[in-house]
Amino acid sequence: MDNIYLIDALNVTGGLLAIVLYAVDVLEKEPAIDPKELVEKIQTMVPKSRLAFVPGSLEFLKAGGRVSNMAYLGGALLKIKPALN
């Protein structure tokens, strides 16, 4: 178990993918890197990784309880879409 390291990426989907791709890039450039050093480099990227998106509609946010009925109605009428991160 000495060669297993846990890293909390504080992200899912796209944010996590960016961190994984960074780790792959580091490993390709430095194949003999010490695992602890690799973990440290990855952990420096965690606070810099964020995922943001604009939903196509508010339907799923309303269905999931993320927006109220009033916010849904107002957003739909005014064609306002929130940027989520």
TrEMBL record:
It holds the Pfam family DegV. PROSITE patterns: DEGV. It comes from the Bacteria. InterPro entries: DegV, DegV_C. This is DegV family protein.
